[in-house]
Structure formats: structure tokens, C-alpha cells
Amino acid sequence: MTTIERLRGGLIVSCQAYPGEPMRHSETMAQIAASAAGGGATGIRAQGIDDIRLVRERTGLQLPLIGLWKDGSDDVFITPTLRHAIAVAEAGADIVALDGTRRERPDGLSLAETIARLRDAANALVMADCGSVDDGLAAADAGADVVGTTLCGYTGERPRRHGPDLEVLAELSSRLEVPVIAEGRIHSFQDAVACCDAGAFAVCVGTAITHPASITRWFAEALSEVNR
Fold it and tell me: Domains of the chain, with CATH numbers?
């Protein structure tokens, strides 16, 4: 079974922490990844070279590992250059996730050039994190193996909804031959099921599983509303 096929119909858990948070530590992220694997995840998504290496070590080859490297403060910061993409692959990622939008990349390469050169340099698949239908179509044409809805609502092309952008997900799933992974603002079981109903090949959940500060805030705000 291929790496991508192992993800079909399953849950990918994104193990990431924001800068400055107590959980921003590779050991912690690796422990969360191992726990997610024990809970039935079909894949792991990890950010940063150290995290990718340690997650790979802890989970071995039992789960496909999607890796990315967030760097910079400009619009394109998810694995923004070919150099970043090669480093992610060399750290142990089976699938390199990178910015799959139509925006200019910091190193001046097109998405198609980045994907082609990455394949020449490393044996890795590519997940294009997209923000719209047009992004997804262009990313597939550029050679991406998987398209994700990760950036919907964050690039200015689509409104930022409370939940996942099911409209983009449904259209991409119906028009593309490559798998489409639902990612972004999937906060509940119901959201995940809705993504599957919209045609998602797999569902990637991060915050609702691996970010205690956000989960705590959701509960605290709900209780605050009730007790006003």
C-alpha cells in the first residue's frame, strides 16, 4: 500500500505548538504524536526540523509523516523555499507540506519548479497547502501529490469561517484526480464527518486535539457565557 493510500479515510493529527508556548518542545510534540498513533491516527503532521526528526524516531515507519517548516513572517511561510523543502524531506518526512498558493515564493521559484527540484533532490511526496479552488487546481497542475485546504480563510481569497471551508473542499474533491485533505478549523467530530461527506480523502486535525490552550479557552468561554 502506498504512503498516500494509507491515509485514505483516516485521521491525520497535526502536532504543533505556537512560539513561546510551554509545549513548544520537540520532545513534547513527539510524545503527542506517539499518543495520537496509539489512539488510531493514520498519519502525523509535524512542524520544524527537530520535531520531524524526533517524531520519525518515535513513531518509526508505522505512520506516514507529513512535515513542514514554518519560517518567516511574510505571506508565504509554510516551507517557503526549495531549501526548506529539501531539509524537511531529509529530516524524515514522507510527505513535504508547503505553501501551495499562487503567491510568489521567497526564492523566486514557481511551485512547479519547487516540486520538480525537490523530487530530484529527495524521495518525497508533496502536499500543497492551498487557500482556494484556484490554488488547488494550480497546485495539482504543478505536480502536487496531495492538495490540502489548510490555508482557506488565511490568504484573503476566502472568508475565514468558524469551521472548515466545505465549499472549497467539495469543489476540489469533485474536480481533482489527486487526493484532497481537509484541514483547517475542524473543531469537532461533526466537522470531521462533514468533511468526509464533502469528499475529503482524509481529515487533518490539529488544534482540537493537540492544543490545550485553545481547547481550554473554548470551554472557559462557554462556561463564561452560561454564568453571565
Answer: 5-226 (3.20.20.70)
